[in-house]
Amino acid sequence: MTGLTALLLADGRFPAGGYAHSGGLEAACDDGLTGDDVGAYIRARLYAVAAAECALAVAASRETEVEVLLLLDEEAAARVPSPALRAVSQRLGSQLLRTASVAWPEAAVPRAYRAASTATPRPVAFGVVGRAAGLDELELARGFLYDDAATVAAAAVKLLPVDVLSTTRLLVELEEDVEQLALAAVSLDVPPRELPSAFAPLLELRSLAHGRKEGRLFAS
User: What's the total number of domains in the chain?
Assistant: First the structure.
């Protein structure tokens, strides 16, 4: 059932809250991004944001000690300067852990981590849940990266004059990028502080303005 589980975690209908977020696309649209830019935006986000987060998720999937997972919490927070984006990550991580507690109630690590963590950043939560669900590291990495890209693609259909067929094609075109980034994340074997760090200044700054915007369609 591992293959089915991988599909389940990457499914937009999995109740982890991703449907309420655009990965910064809504704020980018407010700054003039058009439908022709969506593919480039998704690819840039994969390399600038999701790749480093994926490495955190894979690292979390290797851990059974809650103390180490809490250290990864700190590393995740250190990589996200924007308070708004840290809050988004915490909400998504918390929702993912709540869902996992129902889907895989026998798994001890998610319960212990959820009880101890005050941050629950999404990458760490995803790694914890992926391990509980029985995913291997490469499946988990692919799922994390795909979910990031698919979240933006789904939001684009609501925000821009693009159709779901076009955004599906964009996701297919990202297969090689996702595979390369997934393999890179799995190949890492370093202490938490030496995990990759990336910074997307414009995304961080836009998140602050987006959080104050009235009438926004997405939470991020």
Answer: 1
